[in-house]
Amino acid sequence: MVRVLITGSTDGFGLEAARQLVQRGHTVYLHARNQVRADYAKAKCPGAAGVLIADLTSVIETRKMAEEANTIGAFDSVILNAGLLYGPFRKTPDTGVPAMVFVNILAPYILTCLLTPPKRLTFIASVLHREANTDLKDIFWFERGETEFKDFPAYCDSKFHVMLLANAVARRFKSTSVTSVHPGWVPTKIGTSDATDKLEDGVDARL
Description:
Blueprint: E1 3-6, H1 12-23, E2 27-32, H2 35-44, E3 50-53, H3 59-72, E4 77-80, H4 99-114, E5 120-124, H5 151-172, E6 177-181, H6 199-206
Parallel strand pairs: 1-2, 1-4, 2-3, 4-5, 5-6
Helix pairs in contact: 1-6, 3-4, 4-5
């Protein structure tokens, strides 16, 4: 049996993956952005070993989560699942980066750098990285700012950057299996109810 940490596991893919892993007898730690969401996730996945709480739009809270995870011990698998798509710019207080960009790119980067390297590290990517602007200019929106922000193009760009991050980590973490996964278009908050694929199939792709 293995020890697993899943970010963004209060609903959707993250919660379903946690449930399936618990059913298989693994030790699973959930992640929620606040106590209310943590209580909800624990009720939905009562077999989970615990819930780490952190708002992944905050440098301080993301670093604190890494520290708390490290006190638990090394994880066999970490699934970096937390992500945002729809919504306004929402400037993060400690960096000025849009919340979506922070959650999708900077939080996984911080966690990857600070967590004790797991045996397996999974980044949740998307086929939408093919729609990204790949010139890497102004990836944190400091120049364009809130007036030019559009959530869908920003999401596509962020998933392209996730792919770059995964590739960079794979080259550097010699003892960790690093993968990036496109789970399909499935009915989650991001995928919406119009999605044509099955949630269970997306979870199978991750596990």
